[in-house]
Every structure is written in structure tokens, then in C-alpha cells.
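Q: My labmate handed me this sequence with no annotations at all. I'd like to see what the chain might look like in three dimensions before we decide whether it's worth expressing. Could you predict it?
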Amino acid sequence: MTEEAETALKNYDWMVRHRGPEHVELDWGSRTLVWGGGGSDLEDLCRPGFTPATDVG
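A: Here is what I predict for the chain of 57 residues:
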């Protein structure tokens, strides 16, 4: 597994566990991670530090 894929999975796992599976959705058509009243580009899942699960700090 690539480091980028591992980071994305850790970030997605954190989002689902902390926001709830009913509040997090991957919208493949728009390439958006949707949660609550907001969202983010799917590329953000690959970014270290996007969630505390991958905090580099």
C-alpha cells in the first residue's frame, strides 16, 4: 500500500468514527468528501494533518 493511500484511509476512518457514518459521504461525481453542512475535495483525504489521525505535529 502506498503512503498516500494509507493516509487517505486513516483520514476517512477518522471522519467516519468521529462524525458518524450517516454524516460522511464520498460523492464520486463531484470528487467531494461531504459531511454536515460542508465538504472538501477528495484530494484532502491524502493530506497528512487533514484529521488528527494523520497529524504530523
